[in-house]
Amino acid sequence: MNVIIVGCGRLGSTLAVQLSMSGHQVTVIDSSAASFNNLPADFRGRVIEGDVLTRDVLHRAEIEHAEALAAVTNSDTLNAVVAHMAKVVYHVHNVVVRNYNPRWYHFQEAFGLEIVSTAGWGMHRFEDLLSDNPFHLIFTDDKSKTAIYQIIVPKKWQGHLLGELLPEDSSQNLTIARKSKVLQPAEDLTLKSGDVIYVTLLFDQVPALHQRINLLQEE
Questions:
Q1: Using CA atoms in the order 35, 38, 41, 46, what is the torsion angle rounded to 10 degrees?
Q2: 136: burial class by Cβ within 10 Å (0-12, 13-18, 19+)?
Q3: Beta 114-117 vs 94-99: how paired, if at all?
Q4: φ and ψ at residue 91, rounded to 5 degrees
Q5: Which class would CATH give 2-116?
Q6: Which end of the chain is more exposed for a tag (fewer CB within 10 A), N or C?
């Protein structure tokens, strides 16, 4: 796959290296030559210094042949504009933008782009890891308004039924593992300490999960 990455900060450089190691053809664009110092000496992709909003830079990056583009600078407006150009003008099939400041999320969303909100994700992960809660957010998709949670059953929940924990209509969207074995989810399944549950929820279902977990924690 021919991929263009706009922005060579810590995120962009890490993404570039990972994609290159996976066998993809990677071109990195940044307005500052010093940013390319974030790349290792053995990086096999191309680097282009310049203003990404100019046709010359995009043509040097061979955007006409790009199959994917990731705009991951620290400027949410720049990310949105570049991604919109790539999608509408150059018809790049797969375009993803980084959301750096959550206040600009809806601006980027208005362009109809795939968005990865690093700040929002980080905030939720800090919140989970700093709390004593037995469940942790591991993935969010703001476009589809869904989240995936991991729940590790503590000792005090042992003997409770799976149906006591989960909101209604969520059992079909979960996986439960016990000692490396995947179990068939059912509301009358008795929980055991150490069970690991992965559940996919709509954002508006999450408060109900919080409420049920709090009730079990208070017992």
A1: -50
A2: middle
A3: parallel
A4: 60, 40
A5: alpha beta
A6: C
Kindly give the confidence (pLDDT) of every residue in the chain, 219 residues in length, as a single tens digit, with 9 standing for 90 and above: 999 999 999 999 999 999 999 889 999 999 999 999 999 999 999 999 999 999 899 999 999 999 999 999 999 999 999 999 999 999 998 999 998 888 888 888 888 888 887 666 665 555 555 556 677 777 877 778 888 888 888 888 889 988 888 766 655 678 899 987 998 888 888 999 889 898 888 888 888 888 888 788 776
Query: Pairing mode, if any, of strands 68-71 and 46-49?
Result: unpaired
Give the whole-angstrom CA distance, residue 42 versus residue 94. 27
For the chain, domain boundaries: 2-116, 131-218
What is this structure's pTM? Answer: 0.62
Ramachandran angles phi, psi of 212, nearest 5°: -70, -40
In this structure, which topology does domain 131-218 adopt according to CATH?
Alpha-Beta Plaits (3.30.70)
Contacts of 59 (CB under 8 A, 6+ apart): none
Distance CA 82, CA 68 (A): 12
* Angle, vertex CA 138, rays to CA 77 and CA 152, nearest 5: 165
